C-alpha cells in the first residue's frame, strides 16, 4: 500500500504540472471522501482504521478527467469504498478493486461527462506531445517499485504484456486495431499503462499462486485489447481488470483443487 501511495503521489505531481493543479484538488477530495467512509465503518465494526482509502483516492484521481465536477470525484470515491471494499468486510476481503469500481461507477453513470484530459489518458495525440513519454516512463518506474516490494507482481505484468501484445500483433487484423494500428497509442492511451502498472497488482484482487497470476495477467491483456477493438468503450482496460477480478478467486480454487488431487 505504501508503494502504491508513493507511486500515486509521483504521478500526481507530474500530472499537475501538465494538466494543472486541479488534479491535486480532485485527489484530495477523493482521498478524504474515501477516508470518511472507512472511518465510519471502522467505528461501527470496532476495528482499527487502515487508511487504505486515502491511497485509493489518490489513484482514482489519476483516472479522472481534470475537468470533472468535484462532486463526481467524491461520489465515485464513496461508491468504490462502500460497494467494492466495505460491504465485503474490508481491504483483505474485497473482490473488485475499489479504485476501478469508483471510476467505473462514474464512467458508466455519466458517460457524456466523463471525458477530457487525465493522467491516465496521456498519449502522443495529447498536448504537449511528449507528455505521454514521461507519463509512460513514470508508470514503468512505478511498476518496477511494485516488483521490488512484491516480486510476485512480475508475473501479472508479464501476463499482461504477453496477452496484450500477442493478440494485438498476431490475432487481430490491423484494420480492426484503433489508432490505425499504432501500438504505441493502444498501449499508452485510455488508461492502459496507468491501470496495468498501478492497479492490476493489488493483492486483494489478484490470485495467490504465480501461475494463476500469469493467467490473471493474460486475461487482462487479452480482454483489454479485444474490448478496445470490438466494443464502443474506450476505457477497455478498466473493464478488463474488473472482469479479471471476478476470475481471480476461481483460478485459485480451480488449480488448488487440481493440485491436491
Structure description:
With 261 residues, the protein is an all-alpha fold. The protein has two domains: 1-121, no CATH class; 146-261, no CATH class. It contains eleven helices and no strands. It has helices spanning 2-19, 22-45, 52-63, 70-83, 98-109, 131-149, 153-171, 183-186, 192-199, 210-230, 236-260. Helix 2 (22-45) packs parallel to helix 4 (70-83) and helix 3 crosses helix 5. It is globular. The model has no long low-confidence stretch (mean pLDDT 89). Its EC number is 1.6.5.-. This is Na+-transporting NADH:ubiquinone oxidoreductase subunit B. One of its GO terms (cellular component) is plasma membrane. Keywords: Flavoprotein, FMN, Membrane, Oxidoreductase, Phosphoprotein, Translocase, Transmembrane, Transmembrane helix, Transport.
Amino acid at each position: 500500500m505504501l508503494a502504491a501511495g508513493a507511486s500515486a503521489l509521483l504521478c500526481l505531481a507530474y500530472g499537475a504540472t501538465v494538466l494543472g493543479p486541479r488534479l491535486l484538488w480532485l485527489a484530495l477530495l477523493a482521498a478524504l471522501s474515501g477516508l470518511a467512509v472507512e472511518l465510519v465503518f471502522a467505528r461501527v465494526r470496532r476495528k482499527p482504521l487502515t487508511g487504505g482509502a486515502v491511497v485509493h483516492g489518490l489513484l482514482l484521481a489519476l483516472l479522472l478527467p481534470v475537468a470533472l465536477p468535484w462532486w463526481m470525484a467524491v461520489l465515485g470515491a464513496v461508491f468504490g469504498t462502500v460497494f467494492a471494499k466495505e460491504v465485503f468486510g474490508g481491504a483483505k476481503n474485497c473482490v473488485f478493486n475499489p479504485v476501478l469500481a469508483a471510476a467505473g461507477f462514474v464512467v458508466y453513470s455519466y458517460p457524456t461527462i466523463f471525458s477530457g484530459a487525465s493522467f491516465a489518458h496521456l498519449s502522443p495525440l495529447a498536448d504537449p506531445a511528449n507528455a505521454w513519454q514521461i507519463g509512460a516512463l513514470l508508470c514503468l518506474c512505478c511498476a518496477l517499485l511494485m516488483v521490488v516490494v512484491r516480486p510476485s507482481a512480475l508475473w501479472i505484468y508479464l501476463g499482461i504484456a504477453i496477452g496484450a501484445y500477442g493478440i494485438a500483433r498476431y490475432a487481430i487484423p490491423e484494420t480492426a486495431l484503433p489508432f490505425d494500428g499504432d501500438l504505441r497509442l493502444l498501449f499508452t492511451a485510455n488508461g492502459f499503462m496507468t491501470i496495468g502498472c498501478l492497479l492490476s497488482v493489488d493483492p486483494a484482487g489478484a490470485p495467490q499462486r504465480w501461475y494463476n497470476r500469469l493467467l490473471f495477467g493474460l486475461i487482462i491483456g487479452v480482454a483489454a485489447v479485444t474490448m478496445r477493438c470490438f466494443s464502443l468503450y474506450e476505457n477497455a482496460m478498466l473493464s478488463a481488470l474488473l472482469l479479471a477480478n471476478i476470475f481471480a478467486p476461481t483460478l485459485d480454487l480451480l488449480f488448488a483443487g487440481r493440485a491436491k488431487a
